[in-house]
Amino acid sequence: MSxxxxxxxxxxxxxxxxGAVSAPAGGSGRERDEAAAVPAADRVELTxxxxxxxxxxxxxxxxxxxxxxxxxxxxxxxxxxxxxxxADAVAGSLIELERxxxxx
Length: 104
What we know:
By secondary structure, this protein is mostly helical.
């Protein structure tokens, strides 16, 4: 069970629960106190999906987020009623996105 994180639980040792470091058996009281005061190493691992999203975000930062000229072309075609949606292209793009995210 994960510890509840809220403003009422301000004691990190209590929130750590089973992850707290215990003192070695037979140690002096001081050794036990020092061992209990050393927090367990915190560690975060990103999933492959999160790593992929992070790489895509970094790649997008380098350039424009969209093609303004293309957006204007689509806007004009929609206003004129001549915009056609290519369902195969949309489906292909969605499948490619799933592959990039590692789910396909």
